[in-house]
Amino acid sequence: MKEFDNGTYVPDSGIDISVMDALGGALNFTYRVMKPADGKWGGPLPDGTITGMIGEVARRNAHIAICEITITALRETVIDFTRPYFMESLTMVSTAPAEKNRAFAAFSPFSSTVWACLVISTVAIGPVLYLETLFLKRFLKKEFGPHHNLQDSSFNMFRSLVVQNNCLSEGYLAHKFTFLGWYLFCLNVLVLYSGTLTAVLVTPAFEKPIDYLTDLPEAVKKGATIATVGDSSFEMLFKEAKEGIYKEIWHLFNHKDRSQSFFPGPDEGFDRIIPKKVIFLNAQFNSRIRATQRGFSKFHIAKQSFYPQGYGLACFSGAPFMGKFNKMISYMTEGGLVMKWADDQVLKVALGRKNTEELDSGGPTPITLKHLQAAFIVLALGYAIAVLVLGTEIFWKTCSFVLGPVAEKS
Length: 410
Hints:
13 helices, 3-stranded antiparallel β-sheet, elongated
């Protein structure tokens, strides 16, 4: 809606405007748009005052009010509603889940238990092969065939696991079956690892999103703020809850500083989702529109929707045009016009966004140094251990050279 310097407003888009234009065209009337002084949807308060758009209609300062106004029993005590022209639900909007740290992506194909089993199997196969050789030579009197020491057996079994040639010869039939079992094991492990690793590296992994109301307590513990539109039916839903998840969520709002949890409208809420780590509870369709306007990929709209509600036109009590309005709204909803207008609004915003930014081309992402940090960390660790062992060997040789002559003289 556009505001001019003289204080008048001209609507330019939205389902509500399409509904009003259709009603005006069919029933031959024009309308002028105004905003309530307090800028609220409003409703009756315990002290008897009536706020927002509902108050303007109840006092007959306006004939009707339409702006995604939820039909509630409390509001119907002071005004009348037409039949619903749009059915809506609430949802949760949060920052799009961040990509997980890929520093150790090279280890992600297997769980820690699998890695532990692989290490144990690799360490054990060398001694098994060595003991097998000793058994054949000493107990079965098999004097022919090669004899491999423990170091050679362990190292060559590890070579097989990392797709290197095995330099050991199979002089015994038992060795051949041992090698066969180990080779098949290595083949199975390598196929599973390489295939899974490729998928892991090219497909981004993201943190767990906020999809359900039960996720909110944990999110608050991590520093998120729960928010919604203040003085609206959304706030009253949680405020009036006597028990259950709605009551639990009501206590998660920031009641010490209402400005942090209750905003004048959806735009103010969306503007704080990313910079302030806000989880905004808002109408589903309204959220789709505003997320698309700001870049849909920046936000996450929860899978769960709740509190189904109907939007209606608020009219002053006993309004004579209610019957005709209801009849026309029936035609529009039953004919699918309102749903078409909703889809058109999303498409219009999406196309406008497309013209102002480059869209993601999609497809697999290239493997970068960030994905292979773990491989380089392992390489650096290997070099560090090698240097440490080299220093130890030099120190040991030096000590042996110095202490050797002294021991001989003594």
